[in-house]
TrEMBL record:
It comes from the Eukaryota. One of its GO terms (biological process) is glycerophospholipid biosynthetic process. Pfam families: Hydrolase_6, Hydrolase_like. One of its GO terms (cellular component) is mitochondrion. Transmembrane segments: none annotated. This is HAD-like domain-containing protein. InterPro entries: CDP-alcohol_PTase-I, HAD-like_sf, HAD-SF_hydro_IIA, HAD-SF_hydro_IIA_CECR5, HAD_sf. It comes from Roridomyces roridus. PANTHER family: CAT EYE SYNDROME CRITICAL REGION PROTEIN 5, CDP-DIACYLGLYCEROL--GLYCEROL-3-PHOSPHATE 3-PHOSPHATIDYLTRANSFERASE-RELATED.
Length: 366
């Protein structure tokens, strides 16, 4: 549904912070879709399984309860572990507003752009519950995706300190890894068994892909194994009282072990917020969404990123020349942020109404 055009004779509402509501302002002239939003999820819309009350109010404003009518927005999270479709269904139920896969990006969504390169090549995919990320990888086009549980099923001696549970056994594929060289490792989501996954990554890299095979010094490997991480968050905010370790902490643990073994860290590719690749990807998704809704590409000055983590949400948005709003409902809970946002707000509702107020003022000044 296109944005409701404003005719100039119609007055435009102006946000009154004291009353936390909009009032008439007859001076506004509307040219293009005024603004678009990019929402982080954990610590902004939800905490663990709980929806933050301000989240539903914020989305209600964007879904039409403001002077501009329905406003475009996408969700950009460093979370993941399931398909975009499954996560959108769950978010739609929780938030009470339809969240479509065309307006949703998770940490590993960008791997869709890489899958053709690895279509028929065996790769190791890590993170998430059981073999869920394998299913996501196959959906993306990685036809030969294996998990660390597959290695344990193939040879329990790969990691003697964990015996497969019945549900893990059911989630494994029977493979002869002596004949299945792994050419790349993709850490899709937060690993559930750090020790097993660190062991298997070290094995894959040091043996040039043949786990259980002889170690080959890295400088003698013709095609070293590629290593890709999708989420650099050292910490993130769930429903626990203090932040939890994220995939970035797993990467630190792996690199520390690898360096202890080989003397140096292993080169890798990093995706996820705040990386440029992820924000460029998000920009194309947002443009497509705004185009879909309005028939116009957004005027760039009007993109607002709402996030709780200065290191990922704010740093990335600032580097992308977006407006960045830091909320206090997640990782950041006051003090001086490590990356300076355009604005600090108590919660996502205040963030959204502040941004709309800014764009109304811009119109009024025209
Ligand atoms: O595992 C997810 C976490 O690192 C952060 O998610 O939604 O705050 O980007 P989000
Ligand atoms: Mg967050």
């Amino acid at each position: 549904m296109a944005l409701r055009p404003f005719n100039l004779s119609r007055s435009v509402l102006r946000f009154n912070p004291a009353r936390r509501q909009f009032q008439n302002d007859a001076t506004a002239k509307l040219q293009k879709p005024p603004l678009a939003f990019v929402f982080d999820i954990d610590g902004v819309l939800i905490r663990g399984e709980d929806v933050l009350p301000s989240a539903k109010r914020a989305l209600a404003i964007l879904e039409g309860n403001n002077p501009f009518g329905k406003l475009p927005y996408i969700l950009l999270t460093n979370g993941g572990g399931v398909s975009e479709k499954a996560r959108c269904q769950k978010l739609t139920e929780k938030l009470g507003f339809e969240i479509r896969p065309t307006q949703y990006i998770q940490a590993h969504t960008i791997l869709k752009t890489l899958s053709s390169k690895y279509e028929d090549t065996p790769v190791l995919v890590l993170g998430g519950k059981l073999d869920q990320v394998r299913k996501v990888a196959i959906d993306y086009g990685f036809k030969r995706a294996y998990t660390s549980l597959d290695f344990l099923s193939w040879n329990p001696s790969v990691w003697p300190f964990h015996q497969l549970t019945p549900s893990e056994t059911l989630a494994t594929k029977q493979v002869d890894f002596f004949k299945t060289p792994i050419s790349a490792v993709f850490v899709f989501h937060d690993p559930r068994n750090w020790a097993l996954d660190v062991q298997v990554i070290c094995d894959v890299i040091q043996s040039g892909g043949f786990v259980g095979g002889p170690y080959v010094p890295l400088d003698q490997q013709k095609n070293p194994v590629e290593l890709v991480f999708c989420n650099p968050d050292l910490i993130w905010r769930s429903d626990f009282s203090t932040p939890r370790l994220g995939q970035g902490a797993f990467k630190e643990a792996f690199q520390a072990v690898f360096k202890a073994l080989t003397g140096s860290e292993y080169p890798h590719v990093q995706f996820g917020k705040p990386t440029r690749a992820t924000y460029d990807y998000a920009t194309t998704v947002l443009h497509r969404r705004v185009q879909e809704m309005t028939g116009h590409p957004p005027a760039l000055s009007s993109i607002y990123m709402i996030g709780d983590n200065p290191e990922s949400d704010i740093a990335g948005a600032n580097a992308a020349n977006w407006n960045s709003v830091l909320v206090k409902t997640g990782v950041f809970d006051g003090g001086v942020p490590t990356h300076q946002p355009t604005h600090v707000a108590e919660d996502v509702e205040e963030a959204v109404t502040w941004a709309i107020g800014v764009e109304l003022d811009k119109l009024r000044q025209k």
